[in-house]
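Lab notes, practical 5.
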Amino acid sequence: MKEYFVILFSFLFSFTAQSQFAEKDSLLQVINSSAPDSVKSDALNEFAFFMFDYNVDSSIILANLAREKAVKAGNVRQQARAIKNIGISYDIKGKTDSAILFLNEALALAKQNSLHPSQANILTDIANAWYAAGSYELALRNHFEALQLREGYKARKEISQSYNNIALVYRSRKDFVNALRYNQLSLAIKKELYNKQGIINSSINIGSCYQYMGKYDSAIYFANEVIKQAFVPQDVHEGKANLASALLGKKKFAEAEKIVTDLFPQLDMEEEQAAYISCHQVFGAIALTKNKPDEAIDWFAKGAAYARRFNDREYIAAFYKSIADAYAAKNDFGNAFRYNKLHEALKDSLLNEENSRQINEMNAVYEKDKQQQRIGELTTKVSTTEEKAEKNRQLRNFFLLSSVFLLVLAGFAFYAYRINKKKNALLAMQQQEIQQALNEKEVLMREIHHRVKNNLQVVTSLLNLQSHYIDDEKAYSAVQAGRNRVQSMALIHQFLYREVSNLTSLRIKDYISELLTYIEDSNEKDSVSIILQQSIDDVELDIDTVVPLGLIINELVTNAYKYAFAGRSSGMIRVSFTRQPDTNGYLLRVADDGIGMQQELTLQKSRSFGYRMIRAFTEKLEGKLTFNIENGTVVSLFIPAIKTEEQ
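Output from the prediction step:
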């Protein structure tokens, strides 16, 4: 069997670069090890999930293997997860019928074993498959069923996600009233949970609904809220584009023009499609109000060409109509007629597709209802048969009990003694098996941490060696930065391997101290004398918090070494991590007494990989990041207590 897995994963590696699987080495080691089948099933399911983005056929193979292992181990949860992964794979391949078949099988298994969170998640996947197939009614039914389950066990974050999914379906049906209502419900929960990115996303969706409904004052309010709260450039840009569109609806042309004139040069046309299209619409409309039809036609034509790149036919049709209006404004009725015809043809095509979609949706709903009706009839028949069988069993048992009552009474004591003895022996055997499984799991986890640490240190050494052969300063700096990031993660697994009694959390004081020592050694320069001070509270944090925290500290302290003391011969960097009694949270501060962050450097860093990584990990920790200039640069990161746990 081990040789079979080696052949299988050699096949998988042929689909993509081996470097992309470096983080999956530990999973491959588990799969080829002598670990229990339930552990192998979990690893295979993780691998199947990872392969969704690379080769979906491989995901199906891996999920089927995970299912086999889960059946052998009797692990129902892993069985349901494997079947669900098969269904999602077929959904990605666009095979809706197969996807629904496997997802329903996974749902039935989850229902039989009362796996409520799994039921809700599978129902959401079924809804997404129907949504992708254009069956909005069935998508809504399954989303509402998932919502009811989540409300039952009060999973606030998942309830918010269900509200958001339902709003998306209503928006696709152009039912903006219901889309607005469920977006507002989602926003309320995100505010309750202090989910900053979620609040911004819901505010964007709500503003769009108001825009489609022609309620421009409300659209302006939510666009301003997005601009005020956004902490990444893309969200700020989308908020400004939406604000300009709403101002255009209010006929405040000068304000709208000023916004898009400042915004347009900042947009990334490959990543910010909605904002890019909105700017073309606003520029063209404003040109028409200034009686510049040729300029308007130019903007609308560029917008239509851009929309064609993404096959967004609704936007293409809207641009055609705007071009026709612009030609009419310059009395070129021939071209106006031509673009009106193009607009009408595209609208007719979209209408025909919508009618076809609705017919298919009604057929799917009809077949679904028929299937449920058949299931109900069969269930009723089975129940009736079981009731009759139960009555017959009761009569038979009563007769037998009457016949052998004296014999049973005489042998009852001896029988009870034998049964009790067997139960005690079985219980002792089960306890021994459980203890053995726990010991094996602990050994396996320690071995995994040890091998991950060794592999990461090998990567660190390779990067260090490679840097000696790089002449380009930027490339050298990038390789060194990558080496430091890998080392920050390697230290975590090193500490976990050392711990005898705890494999899921570590003492943050020792970890940060060793990490800072490594960073200090890596950035030591003869020309600059830098003192690195630290003040770390001795608390214990879980591994999910330590990984992003270590990477953030590495980025901030390394940046201070690189940029804070330009042109100086000495300096000081202070790192502190303290508990905040008033908020029951934690505060990380990285401060230097250097030259401070310059405006142009701040703009450059905001687009850098390191800066985006810090922002992404801050969001993962649900923390709050602030930058201040106080005799140098002070970066503060507040982490809520929900992400930490005391020993």
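Observations recorded by the TA: The longest strand covers residues 570-580. The radius of gyration is 31 Å.
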